[in-house]
Q: What sequence folds into this?
């Protein structure tokens, strides 16, 4: 992608309107707004039980200007596949089909349907907004919850590292994968815009800071997302036809900019309150090993 969007060239048209039901400081609302700007009005969404169904509003009203089908928790990819098949039968090939689900509905409950669709290379965009837990149903642990985080089902802190869904999708050899952050909305917009023009299964993974679920003041949502990237807990990259490349802040780290330590990012969230130092050290080791692997793979300069 050669032309980068700026604040002057970002489209003014809005598809996510004011008056939605998102929590104060919701990172998802930032991502959804800019993602829809890139996708445009010729888009059909399918969304499972999640924070996003709450954000959009309760029937018969909606704060969105694109059609959306609410579907069962585990069926986002199956629903998107069905919508795509129906459009194909009608001869409509100019509409983008998007499944937009949370990390629980993606990495846990919905992974079977998603894996099947990816294996078939079904022509739709699948978006996982990863707030690292089942936030809409009371902050339970998901496969994306990081080590040490306290949830209602991990009262002493989760004992496992989070699942790496982008790399799981990379193993399916889909044509396009991108990781994005609402803390960098223009870059997020560009990745959605690029994905729109790709054919086949496209997967976009968004790290979504969640003030009530993570435990931080809503005014720090953008800063929290930036901290996650700068310490290497979440990395910004895309994979186009199997070719991996970093971009943005992660690219600067790959070129030699020093990563910030994990501990300040962890200490800034109350879900890690009381976390023992050895678990923070384990998280730092996990990040260091991940970046060492990037170096071995030749992704760093």
A:
């Amino acid at each position: 992608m050669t032309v980068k969007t700026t604040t002057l060239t970002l489209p003014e048209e809005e598809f996510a309107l004011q008056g939605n039901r998102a929590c104060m400081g919701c990172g998802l609302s930032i991502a959804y707004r800019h993602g829809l700007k890139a996708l445009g009005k010729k888009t059909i969404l399918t969304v499972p039980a999640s924070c996003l169904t709450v954000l959009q509003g309760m029937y018969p009203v909606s704060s969105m200007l694109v059609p959306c089908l609410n579907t069962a928790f585990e069926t986002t990819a199956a629903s998107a596949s069905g919508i795509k098949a129906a459009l194909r039968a009608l001869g409509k090939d100019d509409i983008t089909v998007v499944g937009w689900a949370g990390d629980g509905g993606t990495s846990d409950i919905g992974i079977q349907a998603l894996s099947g669709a990816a294996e078939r290379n079904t022509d739709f965009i699948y978006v996982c907004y990863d707030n690292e837990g089942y936030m809409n149903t009371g902050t339970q642990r998901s496969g994306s919850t990081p080590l040490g985080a306290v949830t209602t089902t991990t009262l002493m802190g989760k004992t496992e590292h989070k699942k790496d869904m982008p790399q799981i999708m990379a193993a399916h050899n889909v044509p396009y994968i991108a990781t994005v952050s609402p803390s960098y909305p223009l870059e997020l917009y560009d990745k959605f815009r690029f994905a729109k023009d790709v054919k086949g299964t496209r997967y976009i993974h968004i790290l979504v800071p969640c003030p009530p679920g993570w435990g931080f003041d809503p005014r720090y949502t953008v800063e929290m997302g930036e901290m996650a990237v700068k310490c290497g807990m979440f990395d910004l990259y895309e994979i186009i036809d199997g070719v991996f490349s970093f971009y943005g802040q992660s690219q600067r780290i790959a070129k030699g900019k020093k990563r910030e330590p994990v501990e300040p990012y962890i200490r800034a969230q109350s879900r890690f309150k009381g976390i023992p130092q050895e678990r923070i050290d384990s998280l730092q080791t996990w990040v260091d090993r991940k970046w060492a692997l990037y170096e071995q793979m030749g992704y760093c300069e």
Q: What stands out?
A: The CA atoms of residues 178 and 238 lie 4 Å apart. The mean pLDDT is 96. The chain is about 40% helix and 15% strand.
